[in-house]
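Support request, please re-run this one:
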Amino acid sequence: MITKKEIISIKKLDNKKERYEKGLFIAEGPLLVADLIKRGAKHYKIFTTTKYDFLKNLSSIEYICEKDLLRISSMKTPNNILGLFYIKTQPTIENFIKSDKILILNDIQDPGNMGNILRTAEWLDFKYIVSTLNSVDIYNPKVVQASMGSIMGINIAYLDLEQIKYISRTHCLIATDIIGESICNFKIDFPYAIIIGNEGSGISKELMNMANIILNIPRKNKLNLPESLNAATAAAIIMWHFTMCIL
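Re-run finished. Output below.
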């Protein structure tokens, strides 16, 4: 039976500071938990109301009632299972320098956007992502849910501007902004790093000044509306274009 102390401890993991102090993050739902286990994520403990084949031969599994699952879940409607997994060690900047393509996320705030970007990045083989320090934490429960396991397939590091400058010495920095030239006319030069800006304010002045080139996604309608694309949508289009259309 889950204890009151465990319930309090798990609920505290909604807080970023608590997550990193304990080195744990929360994942919920059978599809996500099964995917993390399949990817080799190490679990601390798993709480479930249901027996699943993917839990066979695993240790630290506790069967609980739906009422207790509701107490520890961050979801309005819990989905049968909640796992506590260990946070991965952040890769060093040297690992990023060796990659021929990097995605730089500038103060992405929305957990759904962050999770979707990670999922798309893994799909299109962008395995190295840099995030500025003010972006949402990738182990935020909502990011974990939206990424559907891609947090384990992506190498991500939170870096300050000075560290990003180090990357700019080896990679062509490509900013994305409505004032830039069309991505359709651009010939890629490896290695490169694509910068995706904040949902409201776009790319910071400091990062824009580091950019070697500014590109935009051309608009087809003549109304000049909407004013901009969602950050996750823009990231998906640009990553797909660079991966599939540019040789």
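The two ends are 57 Å apart (CA to CA). The first helix runs from residue 4 to 11.
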